[in-house]
Amino acid sequence: MTAREAPRSEEELDALLSAPCAATIAALARAPGDIIVLGAGGKMGPTLARMAARARDAENSHRRVIAVSRFSAGGVQASLQAAGVETISCDLLDRGAVAKLPDAPNVVFMAGQKFGTHDAPSRTWMMNVVMPAICAERYAGSRIVAFSTGNVYPLTPVSSGGARESDATAPIGEYAETCVGRERVFEHFAAARGTKVAIVRLNYAIALRYGVLTDLALKIAGGVPIPLAMGHVNVIWQGDANRAALELLPHASNPPLIVNVTGTATLSVRSIATALGNRLGREPRFEGKEAPDALLSNTDRMRSLLAAPETSLDTMLDWVAEWLNAERPLLGKATHFEARDGKF
Fold first, then answer.
1. Apex CA 161: angle with CA 155 and CA 166, to 5°?
2. Using CA atoms, how far apart are residues 271 and 216, in angstroms rounded to an integer?
3. R_g of the chain computed on alpha carbons
4. Does the global pTM surpass 0.85?
5. d(CA 251, CA 303)
6. pLDDT in tens, 189-200
7. CB atoms < 10 A from the CB of 138, how many?
8. Which helix (H) or strand (E) holds 308?
9. For 20, which of 58, 247, 266, 343 is 20 to 30 Å away at the CA?
């Protein structure tokens, strides 16, 4: 399989999602020492940890790459270990267990909760605010890249090109509020303990088994109307998002550096659904009309600091359609990108 051929299996997909580019390898060379990935068992964590291990192998480094999670999904630990990643099962809300984790000068913090917030808000506050505090205290002397979300921004006019990192946060809904809380925790440890931090405000990662494009393709294939109120989005290939997070490790700073990580284009939901429909041989159905604002992020800072995303929208559309037509595995976790009320 070449880099641009559609992945034909989950193994080939994970290989694509975990492939570092030259810029990733060079960036990690500027952040020496072991890397620990906290919350590595989710949708992105396994491929990010594998990418760090592949970059290590490419530079013939002896650094350890350690993935930490409860690892509730079967088979994830074994696949990581086979890829040269050490794994540790740990509840990151257990302060005593976190205290026993190995030291590492480089930390990627990926733990958190989005879905289920509406039904169990207290759990979301624990996962998104208390857990980061426990981990930030444990690794106060490390460089930390902490995942956040573009949901911390207000809806912005489509014509504006999206929210910038300097814009004030204005979270809509309790999930987004907890994500601002998570950022504030890392800001606190930067101020109080001198921790160097980079905060990744991500939206929306695409990985075939899930993502905005997969959500749209499933609606098209099922004849389900696509709501247009949230009529514009940004998307980025998950492999490119993984690279961005790892490449930010040497940029971690005090005060924290905040970087929007997403695709550079403002995409029309109607247009990308039509493009997917052409590939699937189905006519999409729509309901409602586009609002003048949406959840969008400006990527000028990302483009000034990091290697450009390698995977184009056309490639992602081709791959999503091929994956769905071949009836390959899906995670069954909708993004709910169309929600404008912040309820997940």
1. 70
2. 11
3. 19
4. yes
5. 14
6. 999 999 999 999
7. 19
8. none
9. 266
